[in-house]
Structure prediction request, 370 residues.
Amino acid sequence: MPKRVKIIPITGPSITEKEVKYVSEATRNGWYKNANKYIGEFERKFSSYIGTKYAIATSSCTGALHIALASLGIGKGDEVIVPDITWIATAAAVRYVGARPVFADIEPDTWCIDPRKMEKKITKRTKAVIPVHLYGHPADMAAIMAVAKRHNLRVIEDAAESIGSLYNGRKTGSFGDFSCFSFHGTKILTTGEGGILLTNNGRLYKRAYFLSNQGKSKKPFWNTEVGLKYKMSNMQAALGTVQLSRIEEMIGKKIEIFNWYKERLGDVPGIKLNAERPGCKNNYWMITAILDKKFGLKKEALMKKLLKYGIVSRPFFYPLSSLPPFSEKTNNSVAYSLSPYALHFPCGLNITRSQVGYVCGTLLKILKLK
Ligand SMILES: Cc1ncc(COP(=O)(O)O)c(C=O)c1O
Prediction:
């Protein structure tokens, strides 16, 4: 890459003086009698925002998924259905509890798990499904909940990427037995690293709280089970609380960024951007394009070309079933046909309209459309 090219990063947060001030306050005061103050505040406000009764703030969404599966008693000999296209954390958590992730195909427009194909993967061993609201688009929760009910399966929503997205007017993360969000630095709301586990079920909350607290009983230092430890710190929670107070502004910016891309690329034959199904609101966390095979450019080659112009892009997830830790033959033809030609473009919360114009212009030049 020539030295003078200015790099446009793939993603990043929006941090104001408000965040800095509140985190400083938590750093000074979040001890002794205030040791849980900011965590409690964040949990209350976040669960109220999504519309669930209970919350446990965690150090990551991966940790939240692990706690959810452990709390449901899922383990060795059990199967859990996950989409073939997602971040590895969804399936890794299934492995953590000793169960087997089973990979189902995705829908061609939303890129989320296909409820019909999910149902076909159910066996006697299936205990749960983990739909993922991929890149911010809600999975088809009505159909998924109906399948789960028919087969008596638990539902854990992996809402890592979908803060504020709506399905039939209801927030993603409010449907399942549990739901899990990520506040990793790439997410719209960030706490640096972090996550949260939500539920409406008091019994499940109790079990999750107990396990997430190292299996501590009421008697001090008397642990009755080997539990887990994925806690969020007060300083992170303070950051999350201020970020949450700005969430609609930040989601609004994401939608604006998507619209800048749509203006330039939306009508270009052979380029397919993120969808938004009727009845859904997409938070457009990750701007994505699926390119027609006719361009003869696979995602890795295109990423290299874009980088020469200072544009950092990111590959659409590889099907998990194709990765070495899983390495399974599947019939997930949609996942396998889309993934090689799909990638993500810069969409950090500080990106400007002219930078998006530069990215789109460069892409069109590379594709020989300009
Ligand atoms: C779909 C999905 N699930 C789970 C995770 C895991 O989140 P974390 O990095 O907070 O553990 C991510 C993170 O990027 C994700 O995108």
